[in-house]
Amino acid sequence: MTNTPADQAEKVAGVEVGERRISIPGMTEEGENLAAETNQAAEHSHGGLGETKQLTSGIGSRANRHTGFDVAGFPQPSGREEEWRFTPLKKLTGVLTDEAGQADAAEHRVTASEDVFVSSLAQGIAPRDSVLQPADRAAAVAAKNVDDALHVSVPADVEVAEPIRVDITGAGAGRRANSHIVLQAGTHAKAVFVLEHRGSAAFNGNVEVIVGDGADVKVISLQRWDDDAVHVGQHDAEVGRDASYKHVAVSLGGAVIRLNTNFRYAAEGAEAEMYGLYFADAGQHIEHRTFVDHNSPRNTSNVLYKGALQGASARTVWVGDVLIRKEAVGTDSYEKNQNLVLTDGARADSVPNLEIETGVIEGAGHASSTGRFDENHLFYLMARGIPEKEARQLVVRGFLNEIIQKIGVSSIEDSLQEDLENELEIAGF
């Protein structure tokens, strides 16, 4: 391309090119070659779902990942698949079995103002299944086995002052529950949805979020299960033109938590964010997977997940995918995961993935870090007379507080601070 003076920058699809455009090594305006030949999964490799040779062909790119409502399209995983290799599958037998849940296994209770509409959606009734496309066996099982989905809707141009709460309470360990929730905000609506999980169950929950044009929506998902609960889920959102969307996942309780949190865009001009906080104790497995699908131009995204681990068998997993498609010119995207290991034997797996199919973007990046306390921070605090135990607590609080502050609901932020105090007491800090 011929260089263009800065004051006469050429634009392609509304994005500056020439000397002023963002330069990415190895990229052209056509993007890096992510075709099947460069991402082909060999027969011996895992590759994406990896459930059949047909499904795994060429799925090195997240764009080729299998989705669908047919449970048969997702065979029982063996643990050798890329999608499941970190997950303790023996503990998920109940939620992966294609069967209806027990009617009283988990209660859903909605607390909302009068301008919020609460109803149910039968199979095949829109807007159910208009956003969420099951991406693994668990999500397909939940979609199939929930006759009536919970539908919580905010009309266009309505600003809901108080958070809309959906309290989900499990009736007991091992009791099987399937759940499907549809959260909807009309054009220029503004609302905060809080999903809080307590009690215990073998819980399989889908959540789909429809964010209208110009809407401002926040979804806060709190996993405060008892120690013997199992929770798998998929949360999908579609973000409208010039809309703002924020998803915050907080996972503190439960034996096994595995959440897939994803969003895509309905049009340009939107800003979407995903934040996560988790604290794993001995015996806990907490797994978060995120996917940002930049499928339209000039949108922004930001993903930040932070976790702390203590206990010899504490385990956390974060797998983050960002796909910037060829048509998504002008994209600005970043994802990061940070883990703080507090004791010997705890393990944190962190896998950031970034695919770029066009070089005409504002920016894109990813980062991951896992480590112990910064001794310089401890020294700084202790040198000012703060005892070591209190200094360690301050470091952990400061590390995780960045996510808590993203919630924006003071009552929830205060209660999470108390939860973290309890976690630190368990850790002996």
TrEMBL record:
<protein>
    <submittedName>
        <fullName>Fe-S cluster assembly protein SufD</fullName>
    </submittedName>
</protein>
<dbReference type="Pfam" id="PF01458">
    <property type="entry name" value="SUFBD_core"/>
</dbReference>
<dbReference type="InterPro" id="IPR000825">
    <property type="entry name" value="SUF_FeS_clus_asmbl_SufBD_core"/>
</dbReference>
<feature type="domain" description="SUF system FeS cluster assembly SufBD core">
    <location>
        <begin position="173"/>
        <end position="399"/>
    </location>
</feature>
<dbReference type="InterPro" id="IPR055346">
    <property type="entry name" value="Fe-S_cluster_assembly_SufBD"/>
</dbReference>
<comment type="similarity">
    <text>Belongs to the iron-sulfur cluster assembly SufBD family.</text>
</comment>
<dbReference type="InterPro" id="IPR037284">
    <property type="entry name" value="SUF_FeS_clus_asmbl_SufBD_sf"/>
</dbReference>
<dbReference type="InterPro" id="IPR011542">
    <property type="entry name" value="SUF_FeS_clus_asmbl_SufD"/>
</dbReference>
